[in-house]
TrEMBL record:
Protein name: Mitochondrial import inner membrane translocase subunit TIM50
All copies of domain FCP1 homology, residue ranges: 224-385
Membrane topology: Single-pass membrane protein
Polar residues composition-biased segments: 12-27
InterPro entries linked: FCP1_dom, TIM50
Organism (species): Paramecium primaurelia
Amino acid sequence: MDQFLSIKHSARSSQFRSSPCSKQSFQSEDDRDTALSFDFTPKPKPKPLQGLTPMSSPFENEDNDKGSQKEESVSKPFIPKLSRFSTQRVITMNDGDKDEEPEGIEKEVKLCSNIQLQIPDEQTKTIEEHLKNFEEKTKLNPKLKQMKSKPMSMRNFQKVGESKEDKLLEHPFRHLIFSPKIDELVLEKHLYITQRGLIYSRKCLKGPSEQFIEKKKVILNKINPNKINTIFLDLDETLVHACNSRETPTVRLKQQNEDGSEIEVGINIRPYATYFLQELAQYYTIYIYTASSQQYAQTIVNYLDPLKQYISGILSRSNCMETKNGFFIKDLRIVKDLDLNRTLIIDNLVHSFGLQVENGIPILEWYDNQEDLELKYLLEYLIEASEQQNLKEFNLTHLQLDYLIDYNIKQ
C-alpha cells in the first residue's frame, strides 16, 4: 500500500511532537485545547494470555505485528491508564487504511489482561452482564444455544448434507467464519487476532468525552430514506486489498488528490464484493467506514459502485478517533440520529469497532485468495439479522464475542 498512497500536508500552523507510535505526528493549534495527555502506562511483567505464548504470536508471518519491546517489572501493581483519544493526525507517506494492528498492541493487551485479573472495573462488569444476560435468554429460549457453533451458512448447508466434510463444525467459535469450508489454521489465526482485539477493546479502551464526540458529529445522506437498517463496511482486507510494490494487483486505478495530482492505486477485489453490495443494499443503508484517506476511499467506491446505487456515503480517517498509541477507532456515536439498535459494522480488526463491540462483526481478513467465499455467506447472516427488531441484540447473542476473551486458543 505504501507505494501507491500519499497525503497532502496541511498548511495550517502545527506544533511538532513525537508520537507514541514511532511516527511523526502533528497537532494543530485549533485542536490543542481538546487534546488529552499521553498515557503513562506502567509496565509490570505480564502473564501470558491463555493459550498464547508469552511474547509472540503462534502464527508467524510477515503480516503479523512486529515484536513487542521488552517489558520492565515493578514492585507493586498499578491500575493502567486506559487508552484515550487525541486530535493528533499521523502523517506518513502511506495514506491508506491500516491493515495491521499498530505496534504495541501485543504489549498493551498483555498488560491490561494481567492487571485486569487483580482489579475489576466497569468494562469487566459489562462483560459479565452480557454473559449473564445471554445465559438468562438461553434458559427462556433453548434454540439460542444451537446458534453458538452453527453459523447461518452451516445450518443451511446441513439441510443438503454438504457440511459433513467440515471437521470444525463443532468448534465453539466456528461460527466466526461464515464460509462452509475453512482450514483449521485459518480459523485459529482469525480467533487469535479477534481475541486480542477484544481484550484491548474491553479492558484497555476508554471512550472519549461527550464533548469530543459532539465535535466529531456528522450527518449522513441516504440513497433510500425509507430503510431503517444501517451497516458500515471497512475497505482494506474486508472488501479490497491495497497492493504493495511486491504484489501484482488485479485492478489499477487513478486516485486524484486535493492538489490535482494523480497517483496509481493497485488493488485486489474480494470475491463476491459486487454481489455482496448489490444484495445488501436491499436490506440496509450502506456506508464505508475506513481509516484511509477520503481520496483513496472515494477512488475505491467509485470503482465498486460507479452508478452510486448501493453506497450512501463514506466516513474516512478524519472521522476516526486516534488513541495516543496510534489506534484508529471507528466510533458510531459520531453519526447524528443513528439508531445503534438497528446498526451493524464489519471490520477485520476488532479494535476498530472497540467502542461498539455488540454491533461489530469481525470478518476474516482477505488479501488475494480468489476462492474466498466469506462475503457470499456472510450475506446470509446479515439478511437474517435485518429481519430482527434489534440487530445489536441479535448480533450479540449469535456471535458471543465476549466468550472468546477467555478461550484457550489451540497453538
